[in-house]
Design goal:
Distance between the termini: 60 Å
Strand content: 15-25%
Strand order of the largest sheet: 3-2-4-1-5-6-7
Largest sheet: 7 strands, parallel
Oligomer: single chain
Number of helices: 7
């Protein structure tokens, strides 16, 4: 079974891209399932079900969705194997821009949209920088010049990635993406012992553990203070 990890900011068009890509994969008789990771709520699983795609969803609640992903991905792979899938796609919305769900030697796809802001590629961090493929969406809403500038910003952050423009509504470009995803020689039975491409935050602070009070007396663990200059007292 192939494992593909999709990630990207919320509302960037990940689900639409995945649905269109799976349509192209089905034309090649490749069976695909999806596991959706999110925080508090998602109804994207209904869209997958309507398309006849096996799907499971997991809500991380108070946990970082990427930490939740790393804690559950082995069980998710076992589910995909039980379903006898040719390909399992996981979808996760990166929120803090510091974490990344990608696994070494497993294809990682980052979805980012043209409307997110010209400097967004510099803000996303390892979710974009360590991806194998970067999909840029919503190009039909901006000008050709804006598309080219945004793509240039993406390439400056991750020059080794394959960058593609895909329309999540029409599916234009989804077939080309599908040809890059499935690899007969890259089948896995487990991710046990595999490594994340990028480490999660190095330590935890008191607020990570539930502290709500403000002030130095309540700040413990990994705490970083701003440099406010010599005129600060």
């Amino acid at each position: 079974m192939n494992l593909i990890v999709f990630s990207g900011p919320p509302s960037s068009g990940k689900t639409s891209i995945i649905l269109k890509t799976i349509e192209a994969l089905k034309q090649r008789k490749i069976s695909v399932g999806v596991v959706k990771f999110d925080c508090l709520y998602t109804d994207d699983d209904i869209l997958y079900e309507k398309a006849g795609i096996p799907v499971k969803k997991g809500l991380s609640g108070a946990l970082c969705p990427d930490h939740f992903f790393a804690s559950n991905i082995e069980e998710v792979v076992k589910w995909g194997k039980q379903m006898e899938l040719d390909m399992l796609i996981t979808e996760s919305a990166g929120l803090c821009n510091r974490c990344s769900p990608y696994i070494r030697n497993i294809k990682g796809v980052c979805v980012i949209d043209n409307l997110s802001g010209i400097n967004t590629p510099k803000k996303i961090g390892p979710m974009l920088k360590s991806a194998d493929i970067v999909v840029i969406t919503k190009g039909d809403i901006v000008s050709q010049a804006e598309r080219e500038v945004f793509a240039s910003k993406v390439s400056s952050v991750n020059p080794r990635a394959t960058t593609m423009h895909i329309n999540g509504l029409t599916g234009q470009g989804a077939y080309e993406l599908s040809t890059l995803l499935f690899d007969e020689e890259q089948k896995i039975d487990s991710v046990q012992g595999m490594e994340l491409r990028f480490p999660m935050p190095a330590a935890m602070c008191s607020y990570c553990l539930g502290e709500t009070r403000i002030g130095e007396a309540y700040q413990m663990g990994n705490v970083r203070k701003m440099e406010l200059g010599d005129d600060y007292e």
